Amino acid sequence: MTETTKTHVILLSCGSFNPITKGHIQMFERARDYLHKTGRFIVIGGIVSPVHDSYGKQGLVSSRHRLTMCQLAVQSSDWIRVDPWECYQDTWQTTCSVLEHHRDLMKRVTGCILSNVNTPSMTPVIGQPQNESPQPIYQNSNISNKPTAAKILGKVGESLSRICCVRPPIERFTFVDENANLGTVMRYEEIELRILLLCGSDLLESFCIPGLWNESDMEVIVGDFGIVVVPRDGADTDRIMNHSSILRKYKNNILVVKDDVNHPMSVVSSTKSRLALQHGDGHVVDYLSQPVIDYILKSQLYINASG
């Protein structure tokens, strides 16, 4: 498959991130590596979306702190971003609504437009000078300067905090990217872009708990979007999926990360990192990056057993 025929993916992880751990970042890296190895996907970005304060989980520190810690944790990454939308809402948002928000957002990314294959749009790129003569934006070309993950991610990263969104009636869409550095002629390539929910096998297992998830939300999450599962501690994902009719129904939309590296997924645990902080355990460095530890100590977070 060529780069333009592969499915371009943005990985979205929702959670408390209380605090965000090294393991959370490793999940992104493992998922990206695995999806690339399948030969079917190109991961162009990752989004960390901390939960709203009204989620009500015991010991949940304010979103102001959790957003800062997440930003510190990904500051050295060139492809993972932190998005505050979920925290900035009036109340707690379902995972389904967060996915739908980001799907809508991607449809309105600055510097990119959406176009029907059969009826290419003449709408100028957002920010394109309006006094220039319109150029055909959908044309065949043998030019080798194809859209790259870096170009698309750059457009996405610039836009995450600026764009309003509307809810589209469609589930999957075509993402049209402008080839950069081609002078005044605008050339576009159509690629398929999908947002996949990134989670651990513990979240997958929670789908099997009766009444915990709204079934219509599960249909949208697994059926419309799809999920990438990073197994934790030898979890049997096949067994988990067989316990849910919805997971069985959309099994092809569930991508389980399989690699040969033995990762200690316990380092994903925010609970264990908080306990290590409370007990003054030096092994906290196994769970948290140093910038996050420094911020926690400076802000005096998680010092009390209740936090």
UniProtKB/TrEMBL annotation:
Enzyme class: transferase
Positions of the Cytidyltransferase-like domain: 14-105
GO cellular component labels: axon; cytoplasmic vesicle membrane; Golgi membrane
Cofactor or coenzyme needed: Mg(2+)
Pathway: Cofactor biosynthesis; NAD(+) biosynthesis; NAD(+) from nicotinamide D-ribonucleotide: step 1/1; Cofactor biosynthesis; NAD(+) biosynthesis; deamido-NAD(+) from nicotinate D-ribonucleotide: step 1/1
Subunit: Monomer.
Name recorded for this polypeptide: Nicotinamide/nicotinic acid mononucleotide adenylyltransferase 2
Organism: Pelusios castaneus (West African mud turtle)
